[in-house]
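retry 2 of 3: previous attempt timed out while embedding pyridoxal-5'-phosphate. Reduced batch size to 1 and resubmitted. Inputs unchanged:
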Amino acid sequence: MAINTDKYQAIIEELKGKATLVAVSKTKPNEDIQALYHLGQRDFGENYVQELVDKEAALPKDIRWHFIGHLQSNKVKYIAPFVHLIHGVDSFSLLKEINKQAAKKNRVIDCLLQIHIAKEETKFGLDEKELHELFQLHESDELKNIRIVGLMGMASFSDNETLIRKEFQTLKQLFDQTKFVIRHSPFEIISCGMSGDYKIAIEEGSNMVRIGSLLFGERNYNK
Ligand SMILES: *Cc1c(COP(=O)(O)O)cnc(C)c1O
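retry 2 succeeded.
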């Protein structure tokens, strides 16, 4: 419906010099995105391929579109022409498909590997062992049209601040270890923190937060 301008300005101030704000606009109308765009926002995050494709076609071309949902391999081709950063890569086969589609478009697509940091079973992502396995595969079969530029994680959906903090710390530790393994691309992004936990995330080393409902209001999936 309407964006929260005061909240937006306050968050921008709060994040200054610390983290990039990805405004998560899934399920929200183009007018809301336009409104934030006019305040200067350029990074927007979407979870659904079709919705992202439609919005990209309709909205200004200098928007940097982040795909933050769970990406199916057969849908990579639709976003490959324009996507700025894919946050949720959690398998080597997906990475290979992104590489293939990026090559077709003569692009290099930046990706973040999603790490399973939450205690919950439902969240996607790699554990530490799988992360190392993926890097080994990447070493032997180097993909020229992708760059792994950092890690992404989602904390448990919980009020337990201690737990959430621990989960973000796990992500930061893995990031610090992994930095030394990555030789060919810049490796500098830690994407974590949402409306409910972004302050904790920043304190624990996040430099990219994904905020939706604080900016755009609650989502209504039944519309
Ligand atoms: C929806 C979503 C967000 C934003 O969530 P809010 O709680 O509305 O800020 C961030 N990250 C991912 C991966 C999401 O799916």
